[in-house]
Design brief:
The structure is a homodimer of 196-residue chains. Chain A is mainly α. Chain A has a single domain, classed as Hypothetical protein af1432. Helix content of chain A is 66%, strand content 4%. The first copy, chain A, has helices at residues 4-16, 37-51, 61-70, 75-78, 86-90, 92-104, 109-124, 128-147, 151-155, 160-167, 169-173, 175-190, and strands at 23-27, 34-36. A two-stranded antiparallel ribbon of chain A has the order 1-2. In chain A, a hairpin with a 6-residue loop joins strand 1 (23-27) and strand 2. In chain A, helix 3 crosses helix 8 (128-147), helix 8 runs parallel beside helix 12 (175-190) and helix 10 runs antiparallel to helix 12 (175-190). The longest helix of chain A is centred in the last third of the chain and has 20 residues, at 128-147. The N and C termini of chain A lie far apart (62 Å). The complex binds calcium ion.
Chain lengths: 196, 196
């Protein structure tokens, strides 16, 4: 007999599988197909684990990993909002709030509250863990573009100034990683992939 | 200036991206395409996080999450060995050892040793964390088959007896989850998806 609690958890985990069908704008590093948000979340968590020592203060690493694993689940309902698409970004918050309500709401109430709090923490960007997670999430998004001669930056004609502006939070959450990111942007301009 | 240490970490994370191109035998729950190992690793980690309370003893959850995130990286070189394919399973260990050596070896030595130890821990199945991780990994593999009228069990003509035999480790790492799994297998037989 499966308890109601376990049934709710399995219903949530079944629904979560949908994240594998949500496509992002970036491609894989070694393959031209677009990346889905589930595999991105894995790469993000692995990156956070591997680069944690570069955070400016000691972190509660398990909380960073949990944030990485759950923060994008809202995209199942709200879709991936391309960071350079101003209209999609406008009502992003509202769409994602409703999604968080529904998706985390599949869980037993205490877990729904826990996951919702992790998601809120990431959105609020007030803790070192949330800021480091945001830094790594963005670095993770930049990596395939850097490795693929500009990738989606070139595809969407984004300038170095906009890439810098959008990714500046890396410098807040992880200054050492922002140095790396700035080097990538500089190199992308030098190699003529993107304009200043 | 990127330090040598950070360069090694980024080289590892770039290589890790390949896991998104390794296909498993199971399909997604809501989509017929085959699942790749990176998105599986994410689902596995989310499942471990969500179901941790069903472990028979209190766990070091961060270690379980780390195991989930890194244990399948060897498939980049060794491929996914289908659990019902006896010949692929025969030299699995050897192929995966070499892969672990190369892939974790991209990291700075202390991290290479840490990730290798996590992988060895999972393979050895001697700690509650490794056993719980193995249980969740298998439950994660069963879920899409259960949700899709037998899925790859039907595709490969696997009997209930073999599914039971292959997934029995769930009962070792998480008896409460094995009860669920046994219920799924019983239902699969009752509904005529698979034979006894
Ligand atoms: Ca996102």
């Amino acid at each position: 007999m499966t308890s109601q609690r376990l049934s709710q958890q399995l219903a949530f985990l079944t629904e979560a599988d949908q994240l594998k069908t949500i496509l992002r704008r970036t491609s894989l590093i070694h393959d031209p197909r677009k990346e889905n948000t589930a595999e991105h979340s894995w790469h993000f968590a692995l990156m956070a684990l591997t680069l944690a020592e570069h955070a400016p203060v000691p972190l509660d690493l398990p909380r960073v990993l949990k944030i990485a694993l759950i923060h994008d689940l809202v995209e199942i309902d709200a879709g991936d909002s391309f960071v350079y698409d101003t209209s999609a970004m406008a009502d992003k918050r509202e769409r994602e709030e409703a999604a968080a309500e529904r998706i985390f709401g599949l869980l037993p109430p205490d877990q729904a509250a826990e996951y919702r709090a992790l998601w809120d923490e990431f959105e609020a960007q007030e803790t070192p863990e949330a800021r480091f997670a945001a830094a790594v999430d963005r670095l993770c998004g930049m990596l395939p573009n850097y490795k693929n001669s500009g990738g989606s930056w070139v595809e969407h004609g984004v300038s170095a100034a906009r890439v810098t502006e959008r990714n500046r939070p890396i410098g807040v959450g992880a200054p050492a990683l922002w140095e790396v990111a700035e080097g990538w942007i500089r190199e992308a301009v030098e190699k003529g992939w993107i304009s200043e």
